[in-house]
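Lab notes, practical 5.
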Amino acid sequence: MISNNAEEIQQNRQYKFSQRHKVWRLLLNSHTLFFALFPPIALYAINIARFPGDLIFRSLIVLAIAGLGLIALGWLISRDIERSTLFASLILFFSMNYGHAYTGLQSLISEIGKLLGKEISLGISALGGHIVLSIIWIALTVLIYKTITRKEHRMQNAPTFLFLVAVTAFLIPTVRIVWRWGEIRTVLSENQSHGGIDLELTSNDDLGKPDVYYIFLDAYGREDILEEFYNYDNSYFLDELEGLGFYIAERSRSNYSNTITSLASSINMNYLDEIADIPSDDVLCRMVLAQSIDSSESIRIFRNLGYQYIAFSTGFTTTEITDADLYLKSEEIGLNPFESLLLRNSILLPIFNFSSFMRIPFEYPGYSGHRERISFTLDQLRLLTDVSGPKFVFAHIVSPHPPFVFDANGIATDQRYPFVIWDGDLFQGTYEEYIQGYSDQVTFLNKSLLMWLKDLLGKSPSKSIIILQGDHGPRSTMEWGSPSEDAMREGTAILNAYYLPGIDASVFYDEISPVNTFRLVLNSYFNADLDFLEDRTFFMSTGCQDFSYELK
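Output from the prediction step:
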């Protein structure tokens, strides 16, 4: 009896040990999932101020499923869990980091060229670099796999080693994200206490509470700049606007030279040093300014006046106002901007570059979604007349800024490069392609805006305030490292057009800048009695907090 009990106890211990061993074995072999989740987490950690957090979820799910699929494939080949997870992890690691290696190879060759006194570059579409690196990359993957699987003791130690590497790699950006968000919350909390403009407003009885449409046109330049730099005659569009009753500020400049700083200033009716304590850290700076946009002074005032706040999705954290009373978002088509950037770092980069090199029609990931957001916004503007009650409509249309996704007739353009929104000397095409693409996109935008405006004002000419305003100018000549006076002049001269029904034209002046836009509106319609600020323009070539250089 005692012997039977001892045997039973021993069997139970062996069973528990066996179960714990299985759990531990599965845990160690979970390194594949950490390798799968690492690329999007790491990419988001360094772009936390650029993309909304929800843009990464789909890539996390897809890569986790891909990791499981690779494990299943490895199991079918080897019938061994350690070999199958090793196979999956190596494939994931090398395939998702190819773009980084290619960029590193480009930089290395460039540095060698400097040492030799020659300019050497692979070029964005050079196939030679891809062929060499692809061979090296595949050979390295196979070599590591064969080296580990050849020796039994290496296979026994591999799961533990890979688990530690994968978990460490995953935790570093994860901790960075958590720490960053904690830091961001602290800074945002401190900036919430900044005092606003204290007003006692009364509506002008003769003018009532007209709807307000603030149309923020990314990189839409002033008429004289389009003529000088692009040989583009924009007089027809501006004449049409004036015929509808618009005032065109012919010498207007943006107050700041990029989107987030320009919008934060205009929508808060003040210069940045008066809006918030701007941190020196670029990420924190962007998040503070994004908060100042999200809870802006002008929106607070209009909401207090009984206005409904309507905003559109842009795909970028800094101008996404998701807590608007009505937040309009198009259905995601194709990949979002974060996923497009993620794929540029992957093994798919040679495919993208090869199609560009061979001039094969190919829709790079990201363009369809960008095109859809612009079309959606323009289409939905026409439907907002049916929304009852006074409303403040904010639409940041990322056009005519690159990428140039429409031709002059609104037809989708063929794309030769991976999706990015860079301009200036970071623009991926040629100078001639920038000039043509920008001009065509202005033409398309003009047609779309005139259709909407004629429809809107035909229905209710006295019930809408409309502001068409560039956030900054175009940047065909911009060299970000050493911007010329002409480049800064081009990049800050903006379209600034006002439709203020019932208001005497004497309130306007040609130099009016965005910081005074809503001071003008509130004075004219709600007896605000706000002083106009001096119209000033600040330029920054990089970051968002360095705006010490003032243009004269």
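Observations recorded by the TA: The chain has two domains: 2-182, 214-334+369-415+439-463+470-509+516-551. The chain is about 55% helix and 5% strand.
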